[in-house]
Amino acid sequence: MLVEVLKIATDPLVVALVLWVLGNIVVERSGVINLALDGIITIGIAVAFVSTQYFGYFIGLLITIVTSLAFATMFMIFINIMHTYHVLTGLALNILFYGLSALIGLRLQKSPVLATLTLSPVLLALVSILAVLFTWFILYKTSIGIAIRACGFNPRASEHLGIKVWRTRFLASTIGYTLAGIGSYIYATVYRGGWVQYTGRGYGFLAITLAMASTWHPLLSYPISLVFGYLYTSIYALQLLHGIHPEIVNAIPYVASIAIVTIVYSTPLHKKLAAPRALGEVYFKEERAA
Amino acid sequence: MPKVAIVKRELSKTVATVAKVLVILLGLLIAIALTSIITGASMELAGITLLQGFLNLNVFVYISTLLPIAVGLSIAFSASAWNLGAEGQLVIGAVGATFIALYTPFGRQEVVAPLMALLFASFLGALWALPAALLKMARGINEALTTLLMNFIAYHMTNYLVKGPWRGRAVYGYPTTDMIPVQARIPTVPGYSFSWYVVVICVVIALLMQLFLYRTKVGIALRALGSSPRFVELAGISSKRLFLIAFLLSGALAGFAGGVKVLVYHGKLVEGPIVGSGYGFTAIMLSWLGGLNPLLLIPASYYTAALYILSFGLQIGSAAVGDALANAIVGSLLAFILLADFLTKYRLVIRWS
Amino acid sequence: MIRPFLQVVQLYKKFGDITALNNVSLAIYPGEILVILGENGSGKSTLAKILYGLYFPDKGYIKINGTPVIFSSPAEAKSKGIFLVSQRPQLIDDMSILENIALFLSTSPSRGLRKKLSEILNYLGMAIDVDKSVHALSYTEKQLVDLVKVLLAQPKLLIVDEAVTYLPRELKHKFLNIVKGFATRGGSVMYITHKVVEAAEIGDRFAVLRRGSVVGVFEKGVDVSTLRQAMFGSEEYLTAITKSPVQRPLHKTPALSVENLVVFDEYGKPAVNDVSLSVRLGDVVAILGIAGNGQKELGEAIVGLRKVAKGKVLLNGDEITHMPASERVRRGLIYVPEDPFREGVAIGLTVAENMKLFSQSRVSKEILETAIRKLEVSPSNPLISVAKLSGGNIQKVSLSRLLLNTPRVVIAYSPTRMLDEKSRVLILRTLQKLAESGSAVLLLSEDIEEAVYISTRIGVIVNGKIVKFFEGPELESYREDIEKVMVHA
Question: Which of A160, C98, C312, C440 is geometrically suited to a Cys-Cys bond with C279, CB 3.0 to 4.6 A?
């Protein structure tokens, strides 16, 4: 059992997933439905892959983070300044980002493979555990985090209390997408070491679903990500053992993530934990209402 | 230091329309510029290709799938039912049509076969949308998310079918089914892969849905559901039932489009991402371009089709580049529509203090 | 000559076609309490929101100690020492009292803050655990926290927007004393209210707002009738309503009855606790309570927008406790919501489309036009989008549901809040006429004046329980008693 857990916790794919989930938690805690995550992950992976080929691992990491932040800022400008629908904006930018990621990868790659970066399993596990603790500390123990959560609960009252909602949301996206960028980098260089068109598409949606399943709580998200990671990695073993068709195996994570969310939301547990109530609400400061 | 604030504004309909037209023209420019940058073709060539796209009868290939999906999505989005799963519903519709054509006795009966296939495709499309609607109603799980995940499931299921049990005997190991019987296919215009019958049906669907949304009580209530479910309940109309209607209608119309793809275009079932080819997402852009108005979707789908021809028309890049380019154009266009929405609904006040 | 702390210079603010503030100029001096007096919808709150940076003015600006400024957020107003306590508490329900206060003061929830907070709460006679979540507090406690947070911030200008109007008497006195003390130490206070007598007691100077304009500024010692005259113009609005004859024939069996109803709020706390009442055809029953005491939840539970935990709701003797709202509406239980923008109309649709949805049968053009004429909706074009109408007219469109159907039971929740005088009269009259023509009317409100004028019976709800019913031909004479019961926490 312990060995199993360790194996999952040190799996680079799971580590990347944990970082994506955490990044999403920070962003959605500020009240923004973060569908653009999927496109930004896809771009992040393409950028990590290409920039590492040109500039090496370290500069590659920096470039990946900066690119993720730049596109996240674009998303936030739409949501907070243009007051667009969260879901629609996320989707629009995703389509654009998928296209850009493919163009970056197709046009700029030197070769379709990359020597994977070997990190010690302990370091990988440590990265994800530290990220969990960091996210928890930021969200629950600092004034920035309290402000972020306040915006997710009730942006109008937050504004009254003197929080600049849009600025707080930009800050949340900066913290969240730094984590997500690191996740994309680990996926590209440590786990995958190769790139084909649209590599990474779909992980963003999985991460959003897992964040929802953990009721946007960082500490709860870790075990949930591990359970999901266990399913994810062990189904490939299932395939080998029982000869299940690989396409069926590929569909299982999506079915499983829907199942996990449904299970959590069928128990009274999620009512006990405070979810960001204003998630997805288009917040306009001067809204005319009684 | 200047102070900037965002306040609401009321624009007259004419000004708002002019803004929309500007976005449409701007979209063409973006498309030309992006194409020329990415494929390395000159701006002139890209421009000419685009103009030819508008005159090319192949626009109807795209219109006959994009239009019905977008009409369905307009209904869903008017009701704030965020069905982002048209892609998957389309793919499953294609599976349904293939099933009728290849695996039931109807498949070899003239007229009956395509009709049955289209009906069953619509039914499966609606069925594929159902779980997301139910999870939303019963557990409050965000339907945008579940429908997006269902897209991936649809892709993989279809891939499984064409690589596994449904793989054709005469396809030499390619991941497709056998061709469907001739009786099940809808006759196409010679030299093109579209059918006038289908084009006419699509236009009729758009007109009917226009009447439905603006002339019937249920349709008006669907549009009201977008502003407030409580309002609709207090007017004595069940908001749950309306939500379900919006979801199932949009799923059915996407499924219908999937049926069209198999019966008219492919003639067989192919891998999921190829059947879908992102039409389910493009239709989302299209429905906003048409302002969620089924009637306006007819010209809007024509416009979008021409952009598609441009993306794939310049044979300089590979198919992969063409797909990436189409995504980039569709995505940036939708972003521009959102920007135009912002500029017509709000204005910036800049004050120097 | 003392220099004013703050000057308002020709402020102008429009919402769509409605002018909320029209060329307003004022000055507030250090050490004074300036009362802003005005009816609902006169622009008082808009002014407060501009001063606190929540709204951005279309024209005009503010001067602080002579320097012109425009705020684009409350954070900026706070940094200049301007603080607002709003009509309704603005707190994050999901967070603790301490976290809320820390957010407001932009500090961390430290031990020192905890101590200071407990001290001031104790002084006010409210020993509340500061780690308690705000949602677990009663409405009065929330108001208290909202006031306390401002006192901890060392303001220079304190704007109090109707925030103490409905506090329990002793607490209100304590607060007014704190406010007065603050002013004598040199602070400025802007005290916003619609209660003339109360205003006259506390104010040093009075500015009266009507329809967005300052119609008069008065010094201390002005008599109440002068203020009232300035506020209402020539006539006092409620005199326009004639008291309904009490000897109306009433049916014996109730059209609506509620038995031992228990309803929970979003956080699982009982918002309505064991409430029973009944309304007969031809009757107007009012349930009065200060906002947040459960009348909203009561109304929503009766119409089916909120789940009932225990108890029964009967319509014409049939149990409807767990029916969806739409089904109840079809059975003739019509609900008029408080917020016309979000629940009363579909803002993107036309007037005609909204009315079509309200009616349970087909609407002909004539019926539509009659409804528009009777309600005096302006402009009267049925094909115009509702978004283009003013707040009062939007509420009238929402009310057309009463004319387009023959309601058995009407439930109206604060239907006149934020409306101008004329629209209020029209709405109250409509409710009255419905009762006269045989409907049962249940009015849920915090406005005593309206209730005593049109009701035959008044129940007072405090903390989710109806604590007392008032009945009889001379309801007006109970006004004082009703208020006493309402604020007795």
Answer: C440
Spatial distance between the Cα atoms of A186 and A131, rounded to a whole number of angstroms: 13
Q: Is A217 on the interface with C (CB under 8 A)?
A: no
Q: Are C214 and C44 in contact (CB under 8 A)?
A: no
Dihedral over Cα of A276, C413, A161, C116: its sign? negative
**Domain boundaries in chain A?**
2-272
Domain architecture of chain C: domains with CATH: 6-236 (3.40.50.300), 240-332+406-487 (3.40.50.300)
**Residue pointed to by tokens 């009463």:** C402
Q: Are C73 and A159 within 8 A, CB to CB?
A: yes
Residue A5 Cα to chain centre, angstroms: 22
Of C9, C296, C357, which to mutate for an interface test with B (greatest number of B Cβ within 10 Å)?
Answer: C357
State how far the alpha carbon of C284 is from the alpha carbons of B346, C123, C244, C321, C482, in Å.
Answer: 43, 43, 10, 22, 17
Q: What is the ipTM of this complex?
A: 0.91
pLDDT of residue B8: 84
Q: Which CATH architecture has domain A2-272?
A: Orthogonal Bundle (1.10)
Q: Coil, helix or strand for B310?
A: helix
**Pick from C74, C95, C107: CB nearest A159:** C74
Q: How many CB atoms lie within 10 A of CB B27?
A: 22
Rounded CA-CA distance C276/C259 in Å is 4
**Residue from B78, B214, B225, B233 whose CB has the most chain C CBs within 10 Å, to mutate:** B233
pLDDT in tens, B192-240: 999 999 999 999 999 999 999 999 999 999 999 988 889 999 999 999 9
Give B210's contacts (C-beta < 8 A, 6+ positions apart).
B293, B294, B295
Given B145, B156, B328, which is nearest A209 (Cβ)?
A: B145
Q: How far apart are CA C446 and CA C461, in angstroms?
A: 10
Mean pLDDT of all residues in A50-62: 95
The two tokens of residue B72 are: 């369905």
The reply to whether residue C341 touches residue A288, judged by beta carbons under 8 angstroms, is yes
Tens-digit pLDDT profile for residues C19-71: 889 999 999 999 999 999 987 778 888 999 999 999 999 999 999 999 999 99
- pTM value is 0.92
Q: Going by C-beta distance under 8 Å and a sequence separation of 6 or more, which residues neighbour residue C245?
A: none
pLDDT digits (tens, 9 = 90+) for B281-329: 999 999 999 999 999 999 999 999 998 888 877 655 577 888 888 899 8
Count other C-beta atoms under 10 Å from residue C253's C-beta.
10
What value does the mean pLDDT take over residues C374-402?
Answer: 87
Distance from the Cα of C342 to chain B's closest Cα (Å) equals 6
CA–CA separation, C154 vs C40, rounded Å? 30
C417:A147 CB<8 A:
no
Tell me the DSSP string of B244-297. Answer: HHHHHHHHHHHHHHHHHIIIIIISS---HHHHHTTHHHHHHHHHHHTTT-HHHH
The DSSP letter of residue C14 is E
Q: Is A146 on the interface with C (CB under 8 A)?
A: yes
- pLDDT tier at C236 (50, 70, 90 boundaries)? low
Q: How far apart are CA C462 and CA A288, in angstroms?
A: 29
Q: What is the dihedral of CA A62, A64, A66, A71, to 10 degrees?
A: 180
User: Per the structure, how many domains does chain B have?
Assistant: 1
Question: DSSP strand E in C265-307: where?
Answer: 270-280, 284-288
CA–CA dist C345, C336 (Å, integer)? 10
Whole-Å CA distances, B184 to B171, B257, B259, C333: 19, 16, 11, 54
Chain C closest-CA separation from residue A264 CA (Å):
18
In chain B, the DSSP E strands lie at 2-8, 346-352
Q: Which stretches within chain A are classed as H helix?
A: 2-9, 12-29, 37-55, 57-76, 86-108, 121-141, 143-153, 155-160, 165-185, 203-213, 218-242, 246-266, 269-272
